[in-house]
Amino acid sequence: MRTALSGVALLGAFAVSLVAVLTFSHPPVEMVATGNPGTGMQLNYVPAQVAQALAINQPPPALPLIDAGPPAKTVYKNVQVLGNVSTGAFTRLMVSMSNWVAPQQGCNYCHVAGNFADDSKYTKVIARRMLQMTIAVNTTYANHVGSVGVTCYTCHRGAPMPTQIWFTGVTPGSGTGLVETNMGKNLPAAAINNSSLPSDPFTPFLLNNEQIRDQGTTALPSGNRQSIKQTDWTYALMMHYSQALGVNCAFCHNSQAFSDWSESTPQRVTAFYAEAMLRDLNRNYMVPLTATFPVSQRGPTGDVAKINCATCHQGVYKPLFGAAMAAKFPPLLGVGATAAAATAPMPASDTTNATKN
Ligand code: HEC
Ligand code: HEC
Ligand code: HEC
Ligand code: HEC
Does the pLDDT at position 235 exceed 90? Predict the structure, then answer.
């Protein structure tokens, strides 16, 4: 009896371990050395994840280039941004915009049927501002987007609403007098890889202009206000940087001295330029459109959808693996634009660190 029982138990244990061995597998990790030789900096890639990223980051085919016909403003009635674009290039861009943003809905996603000049659809009003935003990214922020640039497709990927967006987080317990707040922590958010760090590092850093650097450079009594709390916020943002680009920290830093720029890679400088770009896009383009968006599309506190690194990058180090789509659409580089980047000046740096303290 006893031997039979232990036989069954043994068989059971064997079956369980067989299932474990067959279903759990350690992913083979490809390692790529980076940084100066001897620094031990390396990037780790899981081939299955790379294959998945490759599949969703292919640029769509571009229509053949056309640049013929009189300027759009001489033919059409209500062209505020693309006035000096030839009618040929204008129509090509309208068709491409439909493919990038509203392939199912077509022209009438933005236009009132039969009256292209009419502005009564909110989507057209937003699309006009999006045209200005795209031109601003490609011209003002060449220090980040280089010659790769962006088109509507970089963010939209064939859908009216980009999948990678963020809203200001609601922090339970905040603003309730003596009750301790949870500092925005322990609210698992996919945007920061479900870590227990503050779940909305975007409001302080990519909307407001608070200090990302958290390493003290002075001794404590002389006004050093760096703290573990502040470090948490910086790390939450860094989790997002890594996840949005599909890389680990060594893509930008030498981990023996995270703060030292001379030991960091050139990519850290490129990333640094993106911070100012995002504050500009969120403050001067997205936030002023809040009332234009239907209420149903806004976040839990009524705010507009906003942009972070993942909106363009979608898991890879360069959006669409660096396919230079924008060069095929000169009007998006500002060629022939009459009211290009209407960028309001950026508010001065906030010194209060109000959001994250
Ligand atoms: C994603 C929104 C969007 C889609 C889709 C779209 N358009 Fe437009 N369209 C606009 C915007 C915005 C303007 C105004 C541009 C400006 O002010 O410079 C415009 C202007 C026009 C005009 C000029 C009308 C006038 O008299 O002022 C024409 C013509 C036009 N579009 C045709 C089309 C066609 C044809 C399609 C489908 C193939 C299309 N559009 C799809 C947003 C869109
Ligand atoms: C840097 C990213 C980015 C780029 C580039 C971009 N958009 Fe957008 N767009 C957004 C975000 C974010 C929203 C808000 C999405 C939401 O409310 O969920 C949006 C919303 C829209 C909407 C409103 C959709 C709706 O139904 O509410 C339209 C229309 C639109 N974009 C058109 C365009 C056009 C046309 C271009 C290119 C000229 C463009 N966008 C380029 C990020 C971008
Ligand atoms: C895509 C590039 C990039 C990646 C990936 C990245 N960082 Fe950063 N990191 C930056 C930039 C840029 C800054 C400086 C921001 C500023 O000063 O505005 C920074 C700042 C920091 C700081 C503050 C340094 C100081 O001076 O106080 C720390 C700490 C840090 N990162 C840690 C990390 C960790 C940990 C990871 C991995 C989870 C990581 N970073 C991933 C770009 C990156
Ligand atoms: C508006 C779209 C957009 C947004 C938003 C964006 N990027 Fe980029 N980024 C690009 C493009 C396009 C390139 C390719 C530039 C090139 O190849 O010259 C790029 C390149 C980079 C690179 C250089 C990669 C390399 O291998 O050289 C880094 C690092 C980077 N981005 C980090 C970030 C970080 C961090 C954020 C968020 C703070 C961010 N990006 C937000 C469009 C964007």
Answer: yes
